[in-house]
Amino acid sequence: MDIRKATADDIEVVTRMAYNFLQTTDYLEYTDPQTLGELIASFLIDEHQRIALLNGNKGLIAGFISPFVFGKVLVATELAFWVEPDYRSKGVGLDLINAFENWAKEQGCKLVNMI
Description:
This protein has helices at residues 11-22, 33-45, 92-106; strands at residues 3-5, 50-55, 59-67, 74-83, 109-114. With 115 residues, it is of the alpha+beta class. It has a 5-stranded mixed β-sheet. Strand 4, helix 3 and strand 5 (109-114) form a beta-alpha-beta unit. Helix 1 (11-22) packs across helix 2 (33-45). It is globular and about 40 Å long.
């Protein structure tokens, strides 16, 4: 398992994976590669209670922490989850989800949401 926290050095690879994801949706009309790159750079550089995890060039999961709306605990929420087509059904996605859940627990989260 080659999962690690993405950094500002990973802006290009995260942007590429995000763009690959967007091409499979109707959301592509709402952005462009430059805007997407700028948003990802902001996300990775100002990482307070945010994270993006990479499994090499195979996939990524990104999310954030916030207070639970109905209580006094923290919740981690997944924002983006992508596995490159060549690596699907090979455990890459499950490894990313497990890493995200472990990160959330380390941050004191009691709940994890996948959207």
